[in-house]
Amino acid sequence: MQKKEMQKKKKGEKKQKKKQKSTYEIEKEIKDKIKILFQKNLNDIPYEKIEEFFQQKSQYDRIKVEMQLLVNKFLEKIPYDNLRNLNYKAFTAGLIYYVGQTLDNRKIFTQSLIEKTTQFSSTTIRKKYQILKEILGNPKNNKPLILSSI
User: Which residues contact 142 (CB under 8 A, 6 or more apart)?
Assistant: First the structure.
């Protein structure tokens, strides 16, 4: 009987060791979730709603890809402490707005467009935008070289 109890205890300890992740692994998982949500939410924005800003759909597709690359750079700058207790979906909505503000034409990704796409209120989007602004600085100063040419 004692032998079986010892085996159960060892199994429990092994499971617990497997479940424990380093902060680096947790941070990577969180950032990967945010990247996936960002891509999904960006793809949910229909071209028809913003076609007035582009001559061709390929320009819009190119901007979406470049925005995703920009998000990767921004997420590298954001420390784990700012990510650990977040609502990732709301944070992603604010991130879309923040990245949209780095574009030359800041009217493409408006709060109302993001609000309709992500189902978050403009207040929530604005709060997350302000958090990002504190961490990353003013989006006008984070203009990418690639995007500013469009």
Answer: 74, 102, 136
Q: What is the CA radius of gyration of the chain?
A: 20
Q: Which CATH class is domain 32-149?
A: mainly alpha
User: Would you call 9 exposed, middle or buried from its count of C-beta atoms within 10 A (0-12, 13-18, 19+)?
Assistant: exposed
Domain residue extents for the chain: 32-149
Task: Give this prediction's pTM.
Answer: 0.80
**What is the three-class DSSP state of 16?**
helix
**131 within 8 A of 85, measured Cβ to Cβ:** no
Residue numbers of the chain with a pLDDT score lower than 50 = 145-150
Mean pLDDT of the chain: 85
| pLDDT, tens digit, 9 for 90 and up, residues 7-32 | 766 766 666 666 678 888 989 999 99
Q: Give DSSP secondary structure letters for 26-56.
A: HHHHHHHHHHHHHHHHHHHS-HHHHGGG-SS
